[in-house]
GcrA cell cycle regulator (Methylobacterium platani JCM 14648), 175 residues
Amino acid sequence: MVDAGPSWTKERVELLTRLWSDGLSASQIAAEIGGVSRNAVIGKVHRLGLAGRVVRANGASQAAGRRPRGEADSSIALVAGSQTVLAPAPPSLALVPSHASAASDPVALPESVRVTIMELREFMCRWPMGDPSTPDFRFCGDRAITGLPYCTHHSRIAYQPAAERKRDRRAVGFR
DNA sequence: CCCTGATTCGC
DNA sequence: GCGAATCAGG
């Protein structure tokens, strides 16, 4: 019954491998498996030689180099009352791909918080939802990636993998 | 403010 | 082999 030792059993390794290849992040996997930290997951992944997974449909990490599909310069100024928010124009307002979520994603999708312009904070996703000219216009409002205007979810949509970011991670010899 | 994976190193 | 601490970055 009780767990004798929450080590990496065969089943856990298989689950880890499946979830990792499925595109889930280390923290997500850790939460799914339970009893392990994301560091433990990452460590195990490396030991298994699963690191450097294919950066394709998910690339939940450094996939976004700096290659906006649309125009990063063409921003849209949204004015509401005395507030003005400058939000980068998304690639396409009409077609919002729903393929972002993994095909076999057991966990919940990142639900959009849907905030108004008044509730929008600097660290919130500025992905426009709806027509800016209508009163029911909302922003995603989810937690945005620092330095970027979008959350992880919308960043994957806005910044599609065009050029692979060269991982020039040096072998830490000093610090 | 949040998150991601990569690496090191004591255990 | 394991994973917390740390690093480097989005």
Residues 128 and 139 of chain A are 5 Å apart (CA to CA). Residues 25-27, 38, 42-43, 45-46, 51, 60-62, 121-123, 143-146, 151-152, 167, 169, 171-172, 175 of chain A lie near DNA strand B (CB under 10 Å from a C1'). The first strand of chain A starts at residue 75 and ends at 80.
